[in-house]
Amino acid sequence: MISILDHDFSQLNNFLTILQPTQLLILVDENTHEYCLPTLLGNLETEIPFEIIEIEAGEELKTLETAAQLWEILTEFETDRKALMINLGGGVITDMGGFIASTYKRGIPFINIPTTLLGMCDASIGGKTGIDHQFLKNIIGTFAHPEHIFVFPEFLNTLPFEQLRSGFAEMLKHGLIADQNHWKDLISIKDLTAENIFPFIERSMNIKQNVVGQDFREQNIRKTLNFGHTIGHAVESLFLLKGKPITHGEAVAMGMICETRISKLQDLISEETETQIISSLRKFYPHLDITEFSPEEILNLMKNDKKNSFGNINFSLIKRIGNATFDCSIPIENIKEALIYYQKLD
Ligand SMILES: NC(=O)c1ccc[n+]([C@@H]2O[C@H](COP(=O)([O-])OP(=O)(O)OC[C@H]3O[C@@H](n4cnc5c(N)ncnc54)[C@H](O)[C@@H]3O)[C@@H](O)[C@H]2O)c1
Ligand SMILES: O=C(O)C(=O)C[C@@H](O)[C@H](O)[C@H](O)COP(=O)(O)O
Ligand SMILES: [Zn+2]
Predict the structure, then answer these.
(1) Pfam families per the record (predicted)?
(2) The CATH number fitting domain 2-158, selected from 2.60.40.10, 3.40.50.1970, 3.10.450.50, 3.30.1050.10
(3) 123: pLDDT confidence band, cut at 50, 70 and 90?
(4) Which residue, by CA, sits nearest to atom 7 of ligand 1?
(5) Confidence grade of residue 61 (pLDDT, cut at 50, 70, 90)
(6) How far is the CA of 338 from the centre of ligand 1 (A)?
């Protein structure tokens, strides 16, 4: 269940009164500690004891090492199964916090309070939790729904532009895979500001919720939410590995350009549609220099994509704007051609 709330914390307070957890564990990173926690604490009306757990910000921390530290902290706090984890942050915090909560003592309840655009429109919804391992994105994780998602759009006021643009990529993806009008609305935005994006956030949340509602464990249609991620995740991992992390949304935007090209190479879309999608994405996202990565390196990482089966790299592709398909096994030559095409766009 999702509640979008305009500085109204009463629903959250009522939720806590009804649930009566034994303890609150509020997971934050250094930035959400500074920018979001004071608002949350200033509005919580509860006698339930709480602990603040802070980790450093960034994808680099979404690891097994951090997970082990967090599990240890919970045992030190003697956290029991009736405690509630509150994930206050972006996708790193909700992925990591959801993973810790869903595995500690085989699972304690958790709620997500997303503080980034990406978290609000995508990561906090749908119950995919997890961590990266050996630079493979989300390779260890669980499917576990939060008890509730509380969205306070005011948290976007302190979000840096690059992070807003990152979340916007997932919104564009929602338009491309499920709703032509949403895509049109989004690409018409001239200036990417929280104020301009705000009217379209709920539509993105609904698209994600609707898809997840049909296929929680990603056996079929949920794979369309992974459009842009087969290549995007591999490239995101490589930048992380080289110590030059990029945002998830930048990687997904690059992945969507390549996977749109693949959709064309597979004759799923016309040249006109291909051009429209790629030129719109390029308007919002700077070109990524991937020349230091060979196509083989990228392909190698894609071998561990979670959508693969029987040794095939399976893609989710576009059939038309607002409609996607999945489980498309693509010849290696076409994948390489799309990567070379992207390099030449610079
Ligand atoms: N589970 C899912 O369905 C899902 C979906 C999409 C992405 N993801 C994952 O989410 C992660 C990316 O999430 P993200 O983009 O939110 O990154 P993030 O959590 O790293 O947040 C981005 C940056 O913004 C800062 N920040 C957060 N809220 C802020 C605020 N209100 N004001 C100022 N700064 C703030 C953070 O400290 C961080 O530095 C990736 O690991 C990605 O794989 C998961
Ligand atoms: O919720 C989903 O399903 C998605 O694919 C949404 C993606 O935007 C998100 O990045 C997700 O974490 C990717 O999942 P993964 O299974 O490819 O790790
Ligand atoms: Zn994503």
Answers:
(1) DHQ_synthase, DHQS_C
(2) 3.40.50.1970
(3) very high
(4) 123
(5) very high
(6) 28
As a whole number of angstroms, the distance between CA 203 and CA 210 comes to 10
Distance 233 CA to ligand 3 centre (A): 8
Q: What is the pLDDT of residue 7?
A: 87
Domain residue ranges of the chain, discontinuous segments joined by +: 2-158, 162-343
Model pTM score: 0.98
Q: Ligand 1 centre and the CA of 312: distance in Å?
A: 30
CA distances for 226 relative to 122, 165, 207, 243, 275, angstroms: 11, 18, 13, 25, 21
Can you tell me which atom of ligand 2 is nearest the CA of 137?
18
Instruction: For residues 236 and 135, give the distance between their C-alpha atoms in angstroms, rounded to a whole number.
Output: 9
Q: Where are the beta strands (DSSP E) in 187-343?
A: 314-320, 323-329
pLDDT tens-digit readout, 135-167: 999 999 999 999 999 999 999 999 999 999 999
CATH code, 162-343: 1.20.1090.10
Around ligand 2, the residues with Cβ closer than 6 Å are: 122, 126, 128, 137-138, 170, 218, 222, 225-226, 229, 306
What's the N-to-C CA distance of the chain in angstroms? 43
The three-state secondary structure class of 229 is helix
Question: 225 CA distance to ligand 2 centroid (A)?
Answer: 7
Ligand 1 atom closest to Cα of residue 132:
41
